[in-house]
Amino acid sequence: MATIPQMRTRHTNPRLAYYLAIFASAFVALIVVALILSQMEDGQSDLGAIVVILPVVAMVMVGALSYCGDVERYYSAARRVPAFFSGLATASITLGAAGVSGFAGALLIVGFDAFAIAVGLLLGVLVLAVLIAPYFRKYGGHTLAGFLGRRFQSRRVRVLVALVTAVPLTLLVAGELKILSDLVARHTGRETASVLPLMAFAVALAVGLGGMRGASATGAAGGLTLLLAVVVPIAIVAVMRTNLPLAPLVYGNDLSGLASREAALGLVRSAPMTLDVGLPGVTPLVITQPFLERFSSLGVGGFLLLAFTIMAGVAAMPSVVARAATTPTVLQTRKAMGWAVVVAAVIVLFLPAGAVFARHYLLDIGQGVDNSWFTGLARLAIAAPVAAPPAEGYGGWPVARDGALMLLPAVARLPEVLVFAVGAGLVVTAFAAASAHALAIGTSLADDLVLAYAPEEESELARSVLPRLVAAGAIAVGAMVAARSGTDPFRLMLLALSMIAGSVFPVVVMAIWWKRFSTDGATLALVLGFGLTAGYAILSDIVGLPRILMLDPVAAGLVGAVAGGLGGVLASLMGPKTSQETREFVRDIRMPGGETVFDRERRLAAASRRRRATANVGAST
Amino acid sequence: MKKKIRKPYWRRTKLLLIMTLILPLLVIFSMPALLGLLDGFNVLGFPASYFAVAHGTALIAVAAVLRYVTRQENVDRWHGANDEF
Q: Cβ distance A398 to A286 under 8 Å?
């Protein structure tokens, strides 16, 4: 029999706080022990491998210990995740290791213009908190496709959303797996190709065993370690340079000093086209743009389009929206989203300070102070190997975008273990994000495509097994994408956000906020928006056709959203009105109180089945 | 829920939504134009235009979400729209 939730008010899991405290203590203890060992040993050691491998083992164990036998826990962690932990998990999944590394690297290499990413990420979580999450929680289902299918009472919309979101979610899995494997490979001295299958298997194991319950625990662990990995090294460097650890408030003098030094070096801004998005790729680059010069790598239009595209993509990201249903109540969901914004804001406030400090150190080194740490940087792929010592300034010193976060403790001459610790923090975050995205694909494709209309009492085993198999398949496809040479995890993330922004965002927002929005409107918006964004990305990035007005596909999501949204509005206005039942559903999800809609409908359906069974027995006797 | 409770509740919720989102969205949209006006000023040792983007966005987002969560809770309570209280 299916598990039908009986309680209207669910209590949070009190043990989650203990588990997270144990995980955080173990992580800090690992770094401290590694620091002690590093002082006792001379020469090369395997400390880097130990510091990144043990957290991966711990994440698999967290997934295994969160084993979900019943379907309810696998799909929604039985809605017992406290707001703070859900917020931590939401932040870590939203940013992801690809996002944090990409943003940190873009800040280091192009400076000011990288704030388009931060603006988009922060406002995306805010928009999710206000426009989508509380209403999805009141519905209480497991997937975004299921929510929209119920809203429009349409199997077509449900299947379409499941298919459309599977593409960007797979790209997100691929990006996180790529960065996870790269980091583990560099710290263990192996090739990414040999590490990738192992990491994919580890993520699949955690997802298969733990489901949403495990993803909640690994997500919260990812958020906490990400905070530690970002805040601690930057705060230490801030103390070294300014005597105060509050880096975001105290790097003003360093920023002014950096502007003067870069002006003396003769760095000049370039003039991009209006819609240009000149973000750095995976190839290490020499810094050529002054940090404070705005709109020197991204044009004004490109900056705004990218920010709004990321915002819309984050707000409608299916793996993040699904998290909204893991808290006990609508009120807790709002608080969880509030915590997610706070955590993301802390990270976004600290990273620019780290980039400014790192640029100062790079200039010091470039002027011949010391470059003895060069070998270590090249080994961890933080910078590209160069034959000769770097020339004056940034010249001749190409830095890797995705190694920027690890660059700061290295160039600030902090113990090497702290460089490994930052890598370990990113590894945990990548693991958590890959798990969450893979879980969302598995749940959606299994529940919305295959099992949606199967009789519930007959499909309990299938509901338990199929999402796990589909998630494993999605991880395998993601690993194949990640294995392609030259795969850029940050670009994959931005492309995925662009596709989500162009297709799902206008549909989910209007589904909640406009009762008149019809099935035909939603179908047109999905097809048009996804067709435009995904088609443009394929034509531009794979076929190699020239870009329209220099518009980068990663910033095209807003165009797709506007086109799809307008098409959806027109189709809704021209078509028949929505049904009374649909309008009642929308009214219902807008009210935070009362029983969760999904639970009530399942309870009523189960009662109806029981009545029919009783009637049949009565008739036969 | 009865219409006479639901309607005013939803009206206030929509108003709160607009008040929460309008400032951040307007700030971003007008950012390129506003930044030029801030050149030459300093805040806490930072160029004001840089501070507005690097710190301002994060602070506005946090303030907006905190305000939204507390105000929406008050709206729920006032209209009796949430039986958690």
A: yes
